[in-house]
Amino acid sequence: PAAPPPPPPAASQPTVPPNPALAERLTSMATSLLRSQELSPALWQYCQALIHGAVRLAPDEPRFSRFLVEAAIRTGDVKTAMEALQIYRRARPDDQAAQVQAIEFYLLGIDGAEQKLRYLRQIIDTHTAPATVRSVAAVKAAQLHAERMEDGAAQRMVDRALELNPLNLEAMRVRLSTRPPQSPEERVALYLRMLRANPVQPALGIGIARELAAVGLPKAAKEWFDQSLDLHGRLGVAPPADVGVDYAAITYLGGDPRGAAVVTDRLLQQNPQDLNAWTMRLILARASGDKDELARAIKQANVAVANYLALIRKASGDEAATTQPIDTPAEVALPDPAVEIQRLAGQDRQDLVRQYVPVLANVAWMKIYFEDNPGAAVPWTRALSAVVPANDVALTRLQGWSYLAAGNADEARVKLSAIAEQDALAQLGMIRLAGGPQAKEQSAVAARLLSRNPSGLMGALLFQALSPAAGARVAPSPQAAAVERLVNEFPKEFLRITDANGAPQFYALRLEPVRGGVAVGEPVLVQVIVTNTGPYPLTLGPDGVIRPDLWLDAQLKGAQPHVFPAEAYNRLAGPLVLEKGDSASAVVRLDQRGLAAVLEQFPNAAFQITAMVMTNPTTLGGNIAMGPGGARAGLSRLMERPGANISNEHVRQRLGIAMQNGTPAEKVRAVETLAKYAPMLARVENEQAKQMAGQAADAVRRSGGDPDPTVAAWSTYLFSALTADKEAVRRMLADPVWLNRMLGIVAVDYTGVPRDALRPLAESDPDEVVRKFAAAASIVKIQTGAATQPAATTQPADGGASPAAAAPPAAAAAAPPAPPAPP
Q1: What is the SS3 assignment for 125?
Q2: Do 712 and 706 meet the contact criterion of CB atoms below 8 Å apart?
Q3: How far is it, in rounded angstroms, from Cα 197 to Cα 493?
Q4: Phi, psi of 333 (to 5 degrees)
Q5: Which helix (H) or strand (E) holds 264?
Q6: pTM score, two decimals?
């Protein structure tokens, strides 16, 4: 169902015809204020009203109605947001994201889950609606069913969503969380499907790497680790803390102990207290056969443990606790763990006791296995027994290995056999008790043990313990063939879209001028077009491989080129999934910041303008950069902005013709150009210039009587700004035309009209938009000299003299100075 159309203006309100040029100016006021003023709810209300006025003046321009939707959402005005979205959708019926947003708005107005489900089912069953939009509706229906504990119906809706759009990432996430895959094959299949929707998800790549490692495919796992960690780096997002040790382990298990050592050393440089990384370092040192290297690793690992425990002690309130450098030559004594545990328990710091428990097991294992000193492990094992149950697996394992290392085989066998079925290290101990992996009857047992634990720290430790004597190796598990087949069938070339320059292989990005020539006062409009040129469908949206965000830089060419970074921002609109040949596009106003200021400041100068657009912008190190899946494109040809030097007779004639016979949009631009020049010429020590200033100002004044109400309103506003005429502003506030009243409200802040003049409008103006605007203007204080003024040369509020009497500076007819450096 469609949202209701906007209510018509009150019958007593005169009709105001469209005028896109004036709509552009109202929108520019709003955008400039939002950038230059302190943001507040009242300022957003103020700007929303300006944008609302722009939409009235140009309902067919989607840039304005889209902006109004966003502003109304910020102010919590759902009614206006829905009305604006309806207007926008008429202008951009291809924008499927807007269709989804309309569904969300409509759901807000429906009470009761059953009524919402009925509405969503209506959309799902409407075959004329885009399948991607129907798929989104199915996910929303699934979520409603889940809230009602109707799991079966929820799962059917998720299945329906994926039938309608196999690349619906949200549906796949719901399936992953509510119906988790049970086998490695099912998990990898779902992860790969999610990557087809958007490969810029390094966590999924790491998940696939771990699944490959777990089925005994270390080399394939390392490839996926490499790619996913590289993607993490280009996103500027650190991977989860436990990924590094898994990566080092799979590198070692794949037959590259030197590479594993490099990874481990890097982990320890980043976090010297990473005890898992120290365990990996000890495994590699023991595997190397270098006794000196193992002794050095043991010494440094003990320092790391002491530092970790010092941090726990400091957290408990001991300010004297300190850490030491990892490579300290001094001997480091570890504290008595039983005393530390008792002290923490006495402070009722169970949180710190829980942090201490894994350290107890870690240190005991280090003493027993790597240092071959079971006696040194006794205090740690005893302290562990005080905080865990007697049948705890880790405790039983340590007790069994202590007996094994001390030569007490019978006691070791009793302890280890009790947990061997559930603990890999206990099984390793049993293999040693039976004569070691080199014993013929134990080699098969060792191979099975390693095949069941082919990854992570456990896999690395077992590989180090078993392979030297028995030639054990990581062998693929029974599930490996199916998982490997899925990975091999996945189009890996599609992942290249995440490479630094990979996107152009899959989609074309174009930046075209809307008009090659831009007159003074006209907006500099460009069109961005993204077209799928590759063999794979591409998702578009916040979760898509192509995000809708567009980042544009502008540049002035010529003898003194100037670059204006971050000049404009907008969003693509189009299908949610771009099939081959499909396009998404956006028309963007380029001159929004520094470029806008230069063009405004130098109306008599000619400029050549170019630009660059970037998709998938991201923030790296505080700077904006192109993220994975992004592309860049320059403007296809230069845009010319010829100057309008009013000292030129031809320019004056052209302005005069526009003022008399032009369209309303041309008249708005012409009268604004004259309003810019009037104060500039008035300040020139030249009688001819002063005469032209008076003529320009008079032309602006006379345009206040133009038969088109939009031209008349803008001309009256400009003249009141030039002269700071308080009475003119009061007349505007009382005018029957809503546009005059709105512009009069804008003029209040820099003409010195008392705020009390806004009260009648805020309380009882017949036009709702003007009423809200006046109410917001009564609260917000607009800093004068801001973008609400018609030009940079406008007189301030206290400069009530006419343009002809303004103080003169340099000659306006002279060549303009070089544009200022961009901010």
Answers
A1: coil
A2: yes
A3: 14
A4: -95, 130
A5: helix 257-270
A6: 0.85
